[in-house]
Specification:
heterotrimer; A mainly alpha (517); B alpha+beta (119); C alpha+beta (89); B: 119 residues; alpha+beta; Ubiquitin-like (UB roll); five-stranded mixed sheet; 11% helix; 21% strand; C: three-stranded antiparallel sheet; 2 helices; 7 strands; 43% strand
Chain lengths: 517, 119, 89
């Protein structure tokens, strides 16, 4: 009698080897360097691409299976969210401004990340990293799409989200995240992997997603929490990819070490500057706070990043120098950032406000060394003036840093009363920076950063008004023209939360949801 | 150091003075007054009198601050690129040696912001 | 010794997984946060398939963990039987 013997399944390691090795062929009528033209010019030397291994050992078939399951879960919840008027369950309408920040500042980056990983996946000659890049490219476009889908449910009811991508390419502060990613995708494939794969995904992503997502969970935002967790489940894989990339490049050739160290230094700082937005979101924009920015930085960067760089020391990699300055800034970053958005509330696509007494007490307790001494006085002043009908709107454009493009709001390391000014003369022009680190990044590649599209300078050049605008006519209002160019409506999408349509509508709709009217 | 590139990497800088329709950029910061989150950027013609900035521009920009009305301009200390510097109010920006994208700051001794917090 | 961690969504699927992790890593610290549970351990943390299978009473593929994973820290090595997070230094 014939026995049916179940065919033994391959183990994970074998399955991974079968699906990611030996997939290439030796080209016979084209040169390798013509097929992979970007592999040499950054100076990185790779001797054996097969040494690359994804420690999750995820293969494409398994990838599709688990991603499909994540999507099913996500859309089931989004449906439930809509059926249940989920938008009325958030703590209070101020919370919605974090969603606006996310859709205009972060989601477009997911799409650029998709393009970036598609590009480098094409360029790497090794099938192992190519498969991993393919997965990440798909993840990133999934993130962009699911975020747009989820947040579109808020866009039905609230202002400022209606043209997020248009805003991303134009609004002054959104040039910060935009130029960060543009810098990365215009670098070579290896620098892109170190910038986004390692520095952003591994070192900093926990500070982006975990606070946003647990902040959403804590504030009753089921929509954001769900896409956030769905995206975050991919992030763990991206972080792993980022770490493996670094280890792989470093192991391949000792000459790679100084190049990689320079990239880590640059991109840790670049990424940290972008996280300024997250810092103020955590400390000021969440009606119910999860942890302070400072606490998050200590857990996810100082502790976790410290462990990481200790681990990488055996390759000759050290903690980036900028960590020392960041440690000094952690008591100040979120307060300086929120002050900035309070200043420029007339030109933003979300609302700002001053913390109430209880919130100030929280800030004092979380920032005992800085809040009462440096920030409470200005915030109390603003609050009192607003109560008198004299809310501060700064209508004069700020000076920007040439590298990070953030207004020059940061203070001297160690002296929170003095703005930090740095400058460089290059080919007959002056360039200004918020810090030694942004200055150093410029000096390493001045040809690149002299091209920066700085929103303030672009406005003064006349490039940020709707077509046909004549800025020389009598009574020309530049702010009104710039807002039109942003596709934002004055009085609806901008200004203080207290006088916003969002606040009024939310109160009215929540009233209808909880009472019989 | 230079950008690593596959071929010649040369692109025009975005903010040369010729792009500002006859104006040049001047950045102005007020020390110890961080109520204004950052120094300001202005496009001014190089022929503009420095005194016209003090009298005609700064009040609209910094006037919200209660310290502004208390400024004694004769005592103000000026800095250009961080170095002590003395402007002549009757001379133009160009005659004062101010070039495109110069940064100047002023300190107003005795005025230290809201409740002395440098705000 | 540096800390490694794994964070999972708080839900019905992860409840027995968290339990299994605690069984296999008795010195770990469980940290419950809004909608997520973060488990810290010194130097090394192991997630074992068999322990999870005993708790849920069905075969379990460790790659299923990806669906509910939020974040990890440390070097990773995953096989059919174990997922290990560790620091070398």
């Amino acid at each position: 009698m014939d026995m049916q013997v179940a065919k033994k399944k391959l183990g994970l390691k074998e399955r991974y080897a079968v699906m990611t090795r030996g997939l290439d062929w030796k080209p016979s009528y084209q040169k390798m360097e013509d097929i992979y033209p970007y592999m040499a010019y950054e100076g990185i030397k790779i001797h054996d691409w097969d040494k690359w291994e994804d420690p999750f050992r995820l293969t494409m078939d398994a990838y599709w299976k688990y991603q499909a399951e994540k999507e099913r879960k996500l859309y089931a919840i989004i449906d439930a969210f809509n059926q249940n008027n989920g938008h009325l369950n958030v703590t209070d309408a101020r919370y919605l401004n974090t969603v606006k920040l996310f859709i205009s500042g972060i989601s477009p980056l997911e799409y650029v990340a998709h393009r970036g990983f598609s590009h480098v996946g094409r360029q790497f000659p090794g099938p192992g990293p190519r498969v991993a890049c393919l997965m990440q490219a798909l993840d990133e476009i999934r993130h962009a799409q699911t975020q747009v889908h989820s947040i579109s449910n808020y866009n039905k009811y609230y202002n400022g989200m209606h043209d997020f991508h248009h805003a991303h390419d134009r609004v002054w502060f959104l040039s910060v995240p935009k130029s960060f990613f543009d810098d990365a995708i215009t670098a070579g494939p290896f620098e892109f992997m170190v910038s986004i794969g390692f520095s952003f995904e591994y070192v900093l992503t926990n500070l982006l997603f975990v606070p946003f997502v647990s902040g959403a969970a804590y504030n009753g935002d089921m929509g954001t929490m769900t896409f956030g967790f769905s995206a975050q489940s991919d992030e763990a894989r991206h972080m792993t990819l980022g770490l493996e990339v670094i280890k792989f490049i470093l192991q391949q050739d000792p000459a790679n070490v100084p190049i990689v160290q320079r990239w880590i230094d640059k991109w840790t700082w670049r990424g940290y500057r972008v996280l300024t937005l997250v810092a103020m979101m955590m400390d000021y924009m969440l009606p119910k706070r999860t942890m302070s920015w400072k606490e998050a930085w200590e857990v996810y960067f100082e502790e976790n990043g410290g462990a990481l760089f200790k681990d990488l020391a055996r390759y000759g990699i050290k903690m980036p120098d900028c960590a020392a300055q960041i440690a000094l800034e952690k008591d100040h970053l979120s307060h300086q950032a929120w002050s900035t958005f309070y200043n420029y509330a007339a030109a933003s696509n979300f609302h700002t406000w001053m913390p109430d007494e209880e919130e100030m007490a929280w800030l004092s307790s979380k920032y005992p060394n800085s809040y009462d001494k440096y920030y409470r006085p200005r915030m109390e002043f603003w609050r009192e003036e607003a109560a008198k009908g004299n809310r501060f709107y700064n209508k004069t454009l700020p000076m920007l840093c040439q590298t990070c493009q953030i207004p020059m709001i940061f203070t001297e390391p160690g002296d929170p009363t003095k703005i930090c000014y740095r400058e460089v003369d290059y080919k007959g022009d002056k360039y200004h920076f918020c810090s030694d680190h942004c200055k150093k990044i410029f000096e390493d590649e001045p040809e690149k950063y002299v091209q920066a599209w700085l929103p303030v300078h672009q406005i003064y050049q006349g490039n940020c008004f709707p077509e046909g605008t004549d800025p020389t006519v009598e009574g020309f209002d530049p702010l009104a023209a710039v807002l039109k160019y942003y596709n934002l409506e004055f009085g609806r999408d901008n200004l203080d939360f207290d006088i916003s349509e969002d606040k009024k509508n939310f109160a009215e709709w929540r009233g209808q949801a909880t009472k019989n009217v | 150091m230079a950008v690593a590139a596959v071929k010649t990497y040369e692109f025009p800088p975005a903010d040369t003075v010729d792009k500002f329709h006859g104006a040049q950029l001047l950045y102005i910061g007020w020390e110890d007054h961080l109520l204004f989150c950052a120094p300001f950027a202005f496009p001014f013609p190089p022929t503009m009198r420095f005194g016209d900035i003090l009298a005609g521009v700064l009040p609209g920009v910094f006037g919200y601050h209660p310290d502004f009305a208390k400024i004694d301009w004769a005592k103000a200390e000026w800095f250009k690129s961080g170095q002590p510097w003395q402007p002549d109010a009757d001379k133009s920006l160009a005659e004062n040696g101010l070039k495109h994208k110069d940064v100047i700051r002023f300190r107003t001794p005795g005025l230290t912001g809201i409740k002395g917090s440098c705000s | 010794m540096s800390t490694v961690f794994i964070a999972l969504q708080t839900n019905e699927e992860t409840r027995p997984i968290v339990e299994a992790i605690i069984q296999d890593n008795p010195d770990c610290t469980v940290n419950e946060q809004p909608a997520m549970v973060k488990i810290d351990a010194q130097g090394k943390l192991v997630v074992r398939r068999e322990t999870i299978e005993e708790l849920i009473g069905r075969p379990y593929d460790l790659q299923e963990l990806q669906v509910n994973l939020i974040t990890i820290s440390g070097n990773l090595d995953q096989t059919d039987d174990e997922m290990i997070l560790y620091w070398n230094a």
